[in-house]
Amino acid sequence: MAQIKCKGTVLEQEIAAAYVAVAQVISIDGPESESETYESDTLDNTDAGIPYSHTGRTEGGSLSGDLFFDPALAGHTNFLDLLTTPQAENWKLIFADAATTEWPFVGAGFSFSPTVALNDGLKGSFSIKLSKIPTFPGSGSAA
Amino acid sequence: MKAELIVDLTCIPCEAHPEGKLPKGTVQDHPEAFRLVRCGCAVLADAECEVAAGMTAEQLTKAQNGYPKVAAGLLPEDYPAWEAGYMRGYYPNGDWIPGPNADELDEYEWQERKRESPLVFPGDEGVDDE
Fold first, then answer.
1. Which residues from B are below 8 Å from A when comparing CB atoms?
2. What is the pLDDT of residues B55-76, one digit of tens each?
3. ipTM associated with this complex
């Protein structure tokens, strides 16, 4: 058991059949994957609690984050290429633990928005819509 | 189109690379190999790649010098320390992995502390007036 620092966490994008690290990332959120459920209550249920059941499906969700945006940096223009030429792409989130645990996933969609503010550096927010769910170590996956 | 890796990268395991590893020196033959060059993790390996990358020698050098910092997951605030050779990334506990000039780190930290301090240190008086 350990508390893992976030410094050193890397997001990698597959480019030309090789995973390449994304530059100047300052925060990453998600992916907020969630198993799908439905309300399974019935009229003859005497319990006040509303029961739910799972559908057997899991929504992969999205991975989003912020970075210091450099419009001329190749790694960042690769991002923008996903908007001009949308395509599914492989990604990998690598944690900064001793085992450098990896969560590979497939990104189906992508969004990006630069943020310009007088009192801050030029930043960009990105979001990657997952197709299926990440490959979690030791648990298998639908990826 | 070909580009030769100058750093170790990974890939999805395949017949050619069953362990999913692309060691430094691997030549990637791919229609988008120029992107690896632009990111600074490969050098040009044929004329087609050179044309597609469209980079000057200066741009190539800058990209190649920058990629190791990115691969180490460096926070932008630590870029100066990397460039000074004080560190080469982070241990899992967040501490810096010492760089080639880590021995000079104590002096660096001292200068940083002095710079951020409201106190005037002996010997430093009048520095700002010069």
1. 3, 5, 9-12, 22, 28, 30-36, 38-41, 63, 66-67, 69-76, 89-90, 92-94
2. 899 989 989 988 998 888 888 8
3. 0.77
Q: Do B10 and A98 touch (CB under 8 A)?
A: no
| B32, B71, B94: residue with CB nearest A5 | B94
Residue recorded with tokens 């007036």: B129
Q: Do A8 and B73 lie within an 8 Å CB cutoff?
A: yes
Domain edges within chain B:
1-71, 74-125
pTM: 0.81
The domain segmentation of chain A, as residue ranges, is: 10-32+58-131
